Amino acid sequence: MQSGTPQHTHVLGFAVKAVQGMQNAIVPMAAAYFSMSDQPWAIFAALGIGALIGLLSAGMSYLGWRRLTYTVGAEDIRVESGILSRAARSVPYERIQDVSIEQGLIPRMFGLVQVKFETGAGGKDDLALSFLSEGEGERLREVIKARKDDADAGVISAGAGQDIQDAMAERAAPEPAEVLFSMDEKRLVTFGLFEFSLAVFAVLAGLFQYAETFASVELWDPEFWESWLAGPGSWLSTLGPAAQILGLISGLVTLAIVGSATGLVRTVLRDWGFVLERTPKGFRRRRGLLTKTDVVMPERRVQAITMTTGFIRRRFGWHGLKFVSLAQDSGSASHDVAPFAKPVEIAPIARAAGFAIHPADGTHWHRGSRKFRFDSAVIELLFLCLIAAVVATALAISGKGSPFYALIIAALGLVLASRQMFLWRFDYNALDPNFLFIKRGWLAPKLEVASRVKLQSVEIARGPIAKWRGYATLRLGLAGGTLQLEGLPIDRARELRTAIVTSIGATDFSELGR
């Protein structure tokens, strides 16, 4: 496979896309079957529609495969595609922030992978090649990364004009890898039990919607359930209050079981075989059961770290660590690198990325402004009291309902206002010689750590109330993300701005990370 020569993706890629396109036939097939359910040939009509859509999908996928080529050039990778109208896109190597490999369930059956080139400018500007063989995908990733390193260094790629196989031969020696974090089956199951999810109910709601559309069943009509209960479910109405309360508790327990099971399944599918390694090219993370992903992120592209936890998992000492990077991970600029770990396991990973999870000795933590919290509490209370007044007025005019609902809204305002004042006790920031630390939250505390040399801008923002009350918001520019400290006392905001501006002024960003 000659570098600089247009190449096709794997020939079986069109078959994968054709199979994936068959999901578009599910709704038309169901619609055809239910609309003709009174006919004996309804099932054959539905299958015929599915076969027709499948043939069209296969034909379009094959034509798309024939018309798609990619070229690995000396300075960029170029992809040309389009059946009726042609489109060509070139991405210079220096713009590529990350090259990842993803393998879904269907492509895995064919031994194929998707190679994604992330530019850090948003999903619409990223590039993907679907599908290549596993070996070819890995070779292409290595060549692109090597040429990107050459482009970053300002030299012409040593692989230009060579076969990709020859370029790989220059780097044939296996790279040593240090395992920083991994999750075995026991850890994964424990993690899944903490990942409570009600996604299954969203799926059921979708099925209900289809049932209403195609089966003419009004599942949200109270009369439908009343008529059903009048039959086989009539015995429920004969139960006493104690039994009904027991039924309610059983329903809540069932909800908890379903939510926990759903979270467990999602976690196992997403994080099966989770391994984070440190290689000479950066951090390499692999995970996934049905859809496997393989991401390599250079250390210099880690812009900040985020350490999170949850209300329950915090009581057991479990936390999660994410890297904020220039590249994106599943629609987010944050990469999960240790989603379920103890602080003693997280600290070495943070150090490997050049960060710390604790300020240097002698660094003082500072709280936000109490006035900011008080003003936020008053604003929330007034807003909900206004809503309560509107609701009470509407109920009085209509003569329907009880003013008790308005009192509930006003009580909610008092709760939220009290929450704002309480959160002031858990709003901290600290600045040591190397890092800015932001810690906030009570039930689910969150710690953000940014390197002073990687912050690119700092801004103090103040509205009319903030000016009058003497506090401000500090906005920090960070490649790959943003940081914001709300409600800082104005003196503290100015102190942080001066210190950070000094760090920015002493940093040559053109040389950062070389």
Percent in strands: 15-25%
Instruction: Based on Cα principal axes, name the global outline.
Output: globular
Low-confidence stretches: 156-164, 167-173
Backbone CA Rg: 29 Å
The number of distinct helices, counting runs of at least 4 residues, comes to 15
SS-based structural class?
Answer: alpha+beta
- The first-to-last residue Cα distance is 31 Å
Largest sheet: 7 strands, antiparallel
Total domains, how many? 4
Round the mean pLDDT to the nearest integer and report it: 78
| Helix fraction by DSSP (H/I, runs of at least 4) | 40-55%
Organism: Pontixanthobacter luteolus
Domain YdbS-like PH: 65-143, 276-320, 431-499
Transmembrane segments: 41-63, 188-211, 245-269, 377-398, 404-424
Pfam families: bPH_2
What do these coordinates show?
The chain is an alpha+beta fold and 514 residues long. The chain folds into four domains: 13-173, no CATH class; 199-270, no CATH class; 275-368 and 427-505, no CATH class; 370-425. Helix content is 43%, strand content 25%. The chain contains 15 helices and 20 strands. The protein has helices at 13-21, 26-35, 42-66, 105-109, 134-152, 164-169, 185-194, 199-215, 222-229, 241-271, 343-352, 370-398, 404-423, 464-469, 490-505; strands at residues 69-72, 76-81, 87-92, 98-103, 112-118, 127-133, 178-182, 275-279, 282-287, 292-297, 302-308, 319-329, 332-341, 366-367, 428-431, 435-440, 446-451, 455-461, 471-478, 481-489. The strands form four sheets. Strands 6-5-4-10-9-8-7 form a seven-stranded antiparallel beta sheet, with helices on both faces. The protein has a seven-stranded antiparallel beta sheet with strand order 13-12-11-17-16-15-14. Helix 2 runs antiparallel to helix 3, helix 7 (185-194) packs across helix 10 (241-271) and helix 12 (370-398) packs antiparallel against helix 13. The radius of gyration is 29 Å and the shape is globular.
